[in-house]
TrEMBL record:
It comes from Homalodisca liturata. PANTHER family: LOQUACIOUS, ISOFORM B (PTHR46205). This is DRBM domain-containing protein. Coiled coil: none annotated. PROSITE patterns: DS_RBD (PS50137).
């Protein structure tokens, strides 16, 4: 069983986080990764944190908007460096299994789709959407949230690793759905309509 890189260069390992995978691989070898916070962005408007992780004579640095995100980024970078040296083998000489590494911070919100959808509603005089959490599954360390967006008679559902991501994802899907139904001109702020009913 070998650890490998996926199609997009991402590590491939089940639904485990990079920190968990690194811990498991090193634990089988009787080793422990050493994490060190090398930059603390607390107190800034746009905080950035940097962690360095070391193990097996290698080290890697990761950054993120939270300490946890930076730690996951560092672990993923170290795993990639370990893989570049060849197959990762445990103490028993067995190659370590790989599937898909999914960081809980993958797909973190880059665009405010919730705000964009509300803006579209204001411009087109449509009542605001209603968001309802319709599901929550998985163990505490790997929760999956499902969010439903109801806009008049249209509804969309999306699933993500955090409530915030699920809400933005479902808002993005709703924007796409409204564009499909009503067209690009409808969403334009140049000529706002008198009143619209979806």
């Amino acid at each position: 069983m070998a650890v490998f890189l996926g199609e997009n260069g991402e590590l491939a390992m089940g639904n485990k986080t990079p920190v968990t995978i690194l811990q498991e691989i090193l634990q089988k070898k009787g080793l422990v990764p050493h994490y060190e916070l090398i930059y603390n962005g607390t107190g800034t408007l746009d905080p950035v944190f940097k962690f360095q992780v070391s193990a097996e004579g290698l080290s890697a640095i990761g950054d993120g908007k939270s300490k946890k995100q930076a730690k996951h980024d560092a672990a993923a970078s170290l795993l990639k460096r370990m893989l570049n040296r060849g197959p990762v083998v445990d103490n028993g000489g067995e190659e370590v299994v790989a599937e898909i590494v999914v960081s809980p911070y993958d797909g973190s919100v880059q665009t405010n789709f919730v705000g964009r959808l509300e803006e579209i509603c204001v411009i087109n005089r449509i009542p605001f959407p209603v968001y309802i959490q319709v599901g929550e599954e998985g163990p505490p360390h790997a929760r999956i949230f499902s969010m439903k967006c109801q806009l008049s008679s249209i509804s969309e559902t999306a699933t993500a690793r955090t409530k915030k991501q699920a809400k933005h994802l479902v808002a993005q899907q709703m924007i796409q759905r409204v564009q499909e139904i009503l067209g690009e001109e409808f969403l334009s702020s140049d000529n706002p309509p008198e009143q619209n009913d979806l």
